[in-house]
Write a structure and sequence with these properties.
Blueprint lengths: L5 H5 L10 E6 L11 H10 L4 E5 L10 H9 L5 E4 L9 H13 L3 E4 L4 E2 L3 H34 L12 H11 L6 H8 L3 H7 L23
Parallel strand pairs: 1-2, 1-3, 3-4
Antiparallel strand pairs: 4-5
Length: 226
């Protein structure tokens, strides 16, 4: 949750609820309870005092569109409060949750989750959310540190990092053997190995004295370039 400052999360925004209480729900095929059933979420949000409710019937898994979610965010105005049945109905990760609620607070919009009892319009709720934000930052730093340590350990083991070469050592040796025969052209060897002529020149340095022919139609091997 990079860029979110503590004062933004602890500030009293909105200072008082002066607008609408707006509910949002999201369906879930894997949760056949109130938390996942769109209509039961709608009923719970209305019972909690929401005057407007937006509900996406699909879960939004895999980056699927959530039109009601987008409409809900667009409808919120300063002084409004966004309410969800559970935190996982709003986002799928802690960093996403912190980022979204922090954005709402900069717009003067409060946030409330019924199941967890979280309410950023109260001092206690803002303090709890501040802890969430600190935890999200801690987890992000652990991930970065773990990735850095993993890369260092791989390098220490002599492991090659990044994209593998287009030609393996065996293929390079095979190319050199074929080039020793005058009837084999650079283009024909490149086609046989499934690479372009420019790739072949790159991996066989002794070809440097020959004229490099710009890649032509016979070099079109999708996904096999360096």
């Amino acid at each position: 949750m990079e860029g979110v400052q503590s004062r933004d999360l602890l500030a009293a925004e909105p200072e008082e609820v002066s607008g609408e209480v707006v509910g949002y729900g999201r369906g879930s095929a894997s949760t056949p309870s109130e938390a996942g059933n769109p209509e039961e979420q709608r009923a719970a949000l209305l019972a909690a005092g929401c005057t407007r409710v937006f509900v996406d019937s699909s879960s939004g898994k895999g980056g699927a569109a959530r039109p009601e979610f987008d409409a809900c965010l667009a409808a919120l105005a300063p002084g409004d409060v966004l309410v969800v049945v559970r935190l996982d109905r709003l986002t799928r990760s802690l960093p996403q949750l912190v980022g979204l609620v922090s954005e709402l607070r900069t717009r003067g919009v409060g946030f409330r989750s019924l199941h967890e009892g979280l309410d950023t319009t109260t001092p206690g709720g803002r303090l709890v959310f501040h802890v969430f934000a600190a935890l999200a930052e801690f987890l992000r730093e652990l991930l970065v540190e773990g990735t850095r340590d993993g890369l260092a350990a791989a390098r220490a083991r002599g492991q090659r990092l990044g994209r593998p070469p287009a030609l393996s050592p065996d293929q390079v040796a095979q190319a050199r053997a074929m080039l020793a025969r005058p009837e084999n052209s650079v283009a024909s060897i490149a086609r046989l190995l499934g690479v372009s002529r420019s790739t072949l020149y790159k991996h066989v340095p002794e070809l440097g004295g020959r004229q490099v022919v710009p890649p032509g139609p016979d070099d079109a091997h999708p996904g096999q370039e360096n």
